[in-house]
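Human:
Class, as today's exercise, you are to examine the entry below, and be ready to discuss the fold:
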Amino acid sequence: MSSQVKAVEVFKFSVIGTDQKQDLVAVEEPLEIRIGYGATNYRQQKSLAVTMRTPGNDIELTLGFLVTEGIIESFDQVESIKHCNDVGRTEEKENIFRVELKPDVVFDFQKLQRNFYTTSSCGVCGKSSIDAITAKCRELSSDWRLNSELIYSLPEKLRKAQRVFEHTGGLHACGLFSRTGELVLLREDVGRHNALDKVIGAMLLKSFLPLNDFIVMVSGRASFELVQKAALAGIPIMAAVGAPSSLAVSLANDCGMTLIGFLREERFNVYAHAQRLKSINN
């Protein structure tokens, strides 16, 4: 956890006075993702994205990002993944990952650039980008249903597992749960999208994709990008502590995802595909 938090000097103000002491904040650093692709005798390298993240589980984050951008579907498509050695200082190397894809992995990099959208406040740019992303999402199907009591139990399990949040209060969490409600995996990050990518990347390394037997819960709101990422990983149920956006609801409806919002204090709203949930009376 030492790379994920940093001690800073703060002045604490209250009605009884002012005090100066150390406090812990979440670390935020850039991660650049580069890919090598193409035929064996004609390899190309491109810088794909830079995302601001909390260091830790960087290989998972990188692989999860490639899955949720529709570039790979399995770890078998990856030749190698490692820090870049052709940059300067050590700290720079630690923030740059290069992924070599197998020669038979084919994608249109120019199309990817045109449809690529940032995972910050800029959001998705234009209807054509939304249509392109929606088209990539797999249609989700599952023949199992959940009791509402199981859903009620998820927030407390997520909170108890958040190690770094406990010290800083400044990280988002993403938890992957089994259909019986056990917490399988949790990742934290300053970015909601990064936490989800880390979870998906971890499961990719275990060859568990698609994740059609799992529930995902996020600690904030349910945005379009989170629903898109979960859908590409095959997750049929997403629960969020906060509200969903209109685009998130629309995409969840289109791809067959059960979307739950405002999950807190033994209550929640279902915004899409409520047929997977059963109350105490049915």
DSSP finds nine helices and 14 strands in the chain. Residues 192-205 form the longest helix (14 residues).
